Amino acid sequence: MADVGAVTEVTNLHESGSTLDVAISRAIRFIELALAWLLLAIISLNFINVVGRYVFSRTILGADEVQIYGMIWIAFVGAAVVAWRGEHLRMDVLLRL
Predict the structure, then answer these.
(1) What is the rounded distance in angstroms from the CA atom of residue 60 to the CA atom of residue 66?
(2) pLDDT one digit per residue (tens) for the chain, 97 residues
(3) Verdict on whether the full-model pTM lies above 0.85
(4) What angle, 0 to 180 degrees and rounded to 10, lies between the N-to-C axes of helices 4-14 and 63-85?
(5) Beta-carbon contacts of residue 48 (< 8 Å; ≥ 6 apart)
């Protein structure tokens, strides 16, 4: 079982209410929204590219690269946000044996 006390301690540390913590929380919220919009843009670009490819026999040059790099940014920046909150998934299968 995951150590809930450690997660609560990290959460309480970040939610203590100091000016720096409030500023970081707002920045994290902005980053989350930016990543969500980036994901929607990637999905839209993929949809437009598929329709263009199969209906109009035209594709957007560089669309695949933009999608790949966008997903990489989402993965790494999202991992940083989750790590800051202490909400990373933990694999505790070996600890239960």
Answers:
(1) 10
(2) 445 544 445 555 555 568 888 888 899 999 999 999 999 999 999 999 999 999 999 999 999 999 999 999 999 999 999 888 887 777 766 676 6
(3) no
(4) 100
(5) 60, 63
